[in-house]
Amino acid sequence: MHNVILIIIMALVTMFTRFLPFIVFKKNTPPFVKYLGQVLPTAIIGMLVVYCLKDIELLKYPFAIKEIIAVILVIVLQAKTRNSIISILCGTLIYMIM
Amino acid sequence: MKIKTVKTAFIKTIPVMAGYLFLGGGFGILMENAGYGILMSFIMSVIIYAGTGQYLGVSLLVGTASFLTTAITTFMVNARHIFYSVSMVEKYKDTKPYKPYLVFGLTDETYSLLCDIKIADNIDKNLFYFCVTFFNHCYWIMGCTLGNVISRFLPFSTTGIDFSMTALFVATFTEQWITNKNHLPAIVGVFCSLICLFIFGKENFLIPSMIIITFILFFIKPNMEVGNA
Question: Which of B20, B49, B52, B189 could cross-link A46 (Cys pair, CB 3.0–4.6 Å)?
Fold first, then answer.
C-alpha cells in the first residue's frame, strides 16, 4: 500500500512540474514568456547535449574517442543531409560498432 | 491528411523509439531486480512517464521512502519540466482537445522533437503533436515492461544503443544552429551548462544551469531586439 501511494505521489509531482506554467500563464502569455519560448529551446538543447556527454573522460584513455567521432559524424551528416533520421541512426550505429 | 500526419509523426519518433526501448528497458530490469513485477513497471511508465524520475523512483520504493522525501526528490529531479513547459505555453495554446495529454507527455525527448519544429501545410498540426507525444509514450511503456521480461534472459548485446539519445540532441542542436540566425541562445546554453557542470558536478548541474540560462537570456533580450530590427 505504501508503494502504491509513493507511485501516486511521484506521478502527481511530475504532472505538477509539467502543468504549472500552463496554469500560471493560462489567460494570456506575457511577452517575456513568448520571448523565452523562442530562445529557450535552443539553449536547453545545448544543455541536454552537455548532459548526455557528461560522463565522458577526455583526459583518460581512450579519451572519449568513440563519443567524439560519433558526435562529429552526427553534426556533419545533419549539416549535409538535413535529415535527422539519417544522422541519428548512422551516428548510433557507428558508436555501437566501435 | 490524417494518414500523412500520423506517418510523418511516426518517422520523426523513430530515434526516440530506439532510445526509449533501451532506457525503459533499463528501468524494467532495475524493477525486476528490486523485486517489482511487470504490473508495477507498466503503471509507473503510464502515469509517471519520466525517465530520471522513474529510475529514482525505484530506489525510493526499495528504501520505502517517506511521502515527503518522495515528493521533494521527485520535484527536484523533474523541475526542469517547468522550463520545457514555459517555452511551450505559446506553442500549445490552441491544441484542444489534446492539450492536457500534450502537457502530461512533455518529456525531454518529446520536447526536443517538438520545440522548434516547422510543420508543413499539409499536416494537421495538433494531431501531429498528439501522435509524437503518444508514440513516444508507447515506446516508453513497451521499454519499461519489456525490461522486466528481458531481465530473466540474457539479451543480445545492446550496449551503446542509448547513444541514440545523445545523437538526437546533437542533431537537433545542429539543425537549430543552421536554421537560426541568432546563435547566442545556443552558445549561452552550452557555455552555462559546461560551467555549471564543473561547479556543481554531474548530478546537480541541470537546475542551476537552467536558472542561469533563463536569467542570461532574459537580460540580453533588449540587445537582441535591436539586433533583429
Answer: B189
Tell me the pLDDT tens digit for each residue of B171-202. 889 988 998 888 999 999 999 999 999 999 98
Q: List CB contacts (< 8 A) between A25 and chain B.
A: 86, 89
State the smallest CA–CA distance between residue A38 and chain B in angstroms: 7
Contact A95 B160 (CB under 8 A): yes
Q: Does A60 touch chain B (CB under 8 A)?
A: no
Q: Which residues of A2-23 are buried (b: 16+ CB within 10 A; e: fewer)?
A: eeeebbebbbebbbbbbbbbbe
Domain boundaries, chain B: 2-159, 180-229
Angstrom distances, CA of residue A83 to CA of A78, A98, B4: 6, 23, 18
Low-confidence ranges of chain B (pLDDT < 70): 154-159, 161-162, 222-229
